[in-house]
Write a structure and sequence with these properties.
About 13% of the residues have low confidence. A hairpin with a 4-residue loop joins β3 and β4. The termini are far apart. The chain is an alpha+beta fold and 146 residues long. The chain has 2 helices and 11 strands; from the N terminus they run αββββαβββββββ.
């Protein structure tokens, strides 16, 4: 290999590794009580989760969420943690006491919104995704309001 080629490869290697890892973020299992409360996104998106496994949402019309058919209209629905029932089978279960993935079921005007939330950053944030292989696939991260 030519010395110039080696220099180019050495210069590109960190960028290639960075881009390969950008979509991957570890999830964190948390108790249901840690989800209850108000969570806000970077563009004013908002979820209010109740301990009875219902939620209210608003301003989910940011660019990345509209790709998942979400709307800016106030909406509501139910939430539950995903539970594994087999090697490659999971379903959302309202009675699960903890989890690292949250399934959302929207009602009314937002019923076509199909996103899940991944618990990330040690439970300090929720990432919106429409792809379970990419916890932060929609690049919208919610943090809990104090």
């Amino acid at each position: 290999m030519h010395r110039t080629t080696l220099k180019i490869c050495a210069a590109l290697a960190p960028f290639l590794l960075l881009s390969a890892c950008a979509g991957s973020q570890p999830t964190t299992e948390v108790a249901a009580g840690r989800i209850a409360g108000d969570w806000v996104g970077p563009h004013g998106e908002k979820f209010s989760f109740a301990s009875d496994r219902t939620f209210a949402a608003s301003r989910l019309d940011s660019k990345n969420l509209t790709e998942a058919m979400c709307t800016g209209k106030p909406s509501e629905g139910g939430w539950a943690f995903y539970v594994a029932v087999g090697k490659n089978t999971e379903f959302s279960e309202k009675t699960a006491k903890s989890g690292s993935w949250i399934g959302l079921s929207f009602h009314g005007a937002a019923e076509d919104c199909h996103i899940d939330l991944a618990v990330v950053d040690g439970g300090k944030a929720l990432c919106a995704t429409d792809d379970r292989d990419e916890p932060c696939g929609l690049d919208v991260k919610f943090t809990k309001e104090s």
